[in-house]
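Researcher: Good morning. I'm working through a list of sequences from a screen, and I'd like to move beyond sequence-only analysis. For each chain I'm collecting a predicted structure so we can compare shapes side by side. This is the next one on the list. No need for commentary yet; just the structure.
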Amino acid sequence: MDLFEKCLNFTAAQEARRQGYYPYFIPLEENEGTEVSYQGKRLIMVGSNNYLGLTTHPKVREAASQALARFGTSCTGSRFLNGNLALHEKLEEELAAFVGKEAALVFSTGFHVNLGVISTLVGKDDLVLIDKDDHASIVDGCRLSFGKVKRFRHNDMEGLERALKSCPLGSGRLIVVDGVFSMGGDIAPLPDIVKLAKRYGARSMVDDAHSLGILGEGKGTAAHFKLTDQVDLIMGTFSKSLASLGGFVAGDRVVIDYVKHFARSLIFSASIPPANAAAALAALEVIRSEPERRERLRKISERVHRALREMGFDTGRSETPIIPIIVGNDRKTFDFWRSLFDEGVFTNPVVSPAVAPQESRLRTSYMATHTEAQIDRVLAAFKKCGRKMGIIA
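Model: Good morning. Structure tokens for this chain:
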């Protein structure tokens, strides 16, 4: 069999393009945060992870601009060798202090963090226990480790306990969960997870990609539940609320130092450019100094939640600015996306295997910088398109 035969047999994307409902890799011409431009058409963006709207904040832009002028465009090497800047280490100090841990380590992307941390800490005699709805980067980090992987049903604490009970005596154990689940917008039951981790001698790691800047005064899920001291590792990304690119893990200094010297995704990847580090630092300062952004985001999210549910949409178990509209049928989901797109609203269609079969959905997410007029237009488009598609009455 020809290695490329699978490529020749993959026709779904080509067919979707031909029929006009291909929703991926859309080449945006402009991106101003709450609005984007495609082929000269303006759309309201409700598919971004720019929760606090900081990509256009003057302080963040200025910090990136100054770093670009001072350092140039790239460090052209890994942090392990020639690509480590004092700026990277300052960012690590600020992140560790912000989330309440001894030390932090900055990686090139959030995906790199989960690949590196999990594959470094979980050895051949160890086990890693993950929620079935965990992010793909957690799954891939498990694949790269030499340990055994146990998956439990989404937020099923009885299932997690059964998995822990089945672990061999003397094995190292790491529980890894998303703090806020990226496709459902619901929050992990961290208090129960921490109790089980203590009971069965496991360590815990929380992926706070979608909760940093939002929950717990912006400090994440552990702070939200007042469990910062009881969660071993906190991971976060810069590509959401921190308006940049990169990622980090924070924890005890001895653990972070070990990961620093053994994580292949850190050692063999170029460091984030200085402008990205400076932007993340500036965004962190804005999160500290402008709490009104979180409050604004909370009010917008509550308004959209309430309105969509009153219209009759199924928004699942969301508790955050990530609000899914569950459709259930893949083709209907794509058609719904296209209908909203034509009305000037940019959403994200998500189908299996990213979500379970029959749980296909539009993933929407909101920003502190959305105006009331923009939200009015979004909600009107949802009502119009939802009725046209027969999703709501």
